[in-house]
Model the fold of this input.
Amino acid sequence: MQRRKFNQHLQHSAIALALSPWLTAVAAPSNKPRHWQNNPFALGVASGRPRADSVVLWTRLVLADEDLLLAGESLAVTVEVFADSKLRRRVYQTEVRTDASRGHSVHVHVRHLQPSTDYWYRFSQSDAQSAVGHTRTAPALNADVRVLRIALSSCQHYEQGQYIAHAEIANQSLDFVLFMGDYIYESSNPQYAIRKHSGEEPKTLAQYRERYEQYKRDPMLQAAHAAHPWVMMWDDHEVVNDYANDQDRQYTDPQQFLLRRAAAYQAYFEHQPVLLGPDPQSPANMRLYDQLSWGKLADVWTLDCRQYRSAQACRDPVRGGARPVMQCDELNDVSRTMLGLEQERWLSKSLSASKRQWKLVAQATQISSTSVPAPVGRSYWNDAWDGYPEARKRLLQTVVDAKLNNVVTLGGDVHCNVAAPLRMEPNNPQSPIVASEFVTTSITSRGLGDKAAALIRESNPDLLHYRSDERGYSLITVTPQEVRCDFRTTKFPAGSEAGLKTQASYVVKNGKAGPQPV
Ligand code: FE
Ligand code: CA
Done:
């Protein structure tokens, strides 16, 4: 090989490696221009993981029968990034290869971008072109930021409603969407279905891909992805309801369950604007928890509450997983963990060292208590932080020890809007408030019944706001003065009325822990 050519070759491979660690498998390349019979970009586009100088761009090509490739054939996909919405000023262009081993997904980690800057992007392959997406980088680390606007969302059961919350999110002026899990649901509940999942409950990679395909074809979900970068976290339903680490409800042999989990994680990666690590070759144990900074205004942590947790305490020996538990000594076992020791240590170190004004700790479920009186003592929901009280104490003790004020936690999972102070001892008015919690209701997924919700509300004086009857998302507005939460909601099932309204608004004032009603 000539030296120049060799250098070019090296450069090309280095760029491909830097762009996407997962796009390195060797497949027979096909450079023949194709004439597509069907739009391969039918799942839309997305961007995510915004940083001051980088962002991840995503798409996945879907191939109809008429467009099938030869076995092992790869596709070259062009990515273009522009500085203007009219796509006149192109600032970046590259070509990446993808093939069937990664479901024809494309992940491009675009670097060397400007901070606080809008970009537009699109993908193309031969005569096919994707929709145009918009994204925006984070501010420079030392920037004075006046406002950070986030759409906090989770739990979008496809069968249980229309994605009208996403239609509104798409039209909001936002810095990013913070999605805290249950992006797909593996399970069905025909009683509440207004539309149907296609296919069986997914267990294999092919089945999980099919489930994501169905969700990703929704035009309102596509619009929200095309409009803003998303910061992603998963919860249980991306794999299976109530799983914990290597355990499922059926007590499946962990080695066997981990194969299902690996298939689910791979499908997750293939459909989201996220980076793969720590193993660049495999998503089986992919690390999703992360931290990002928003100028001097805020640090944001996104915590993985599924992959590393201890199994739920006092599980039913036949049907495991989540349930209310009482007289359960296991709850108080200090060795039990929600985050796993490594993530817990990482968070505690990073949180304690944070110098930014607001510390936004996004985690997938609810930290404040929802326990209710039982015949003996109280009954606790063992799947949320109530089921991990020692881990919750350690989390809050970190805040106390580091003398942090302005810690606001953001959650999802429970299909309920929650505003609550976080005390070392929940519901004890003598116990100091150390942080503030907002939990968003679900985009579509059905919530707890009215009676159960009312009992929880009256049994937990800390719950300033607790409503499970409506669907939607939460608009989080962060300024130097306050963190404001507007619960944007609609009736169940979502789509049965035209739009969303504000159910309630709360603020956390600078320096004063605990939400207050507006
Ligand atoms: Fe959910
Ligand atoms: Ca969940």
Summary: The domain at 33-136 is CATH 2.60.40.380 (Immunoglobulin-like). The pocket of fe (iii) ion (ligand 1) is lined by residues 155, 182, 237, 413, 415, 442, 445 (CB under 6 Å). Residues 1-27 have pLDDT under 50 and may be disordered. The helical segments are 3-19, 164-171, 205-216, 219-227, 254-271, 341-353, 389-401, 450-459.
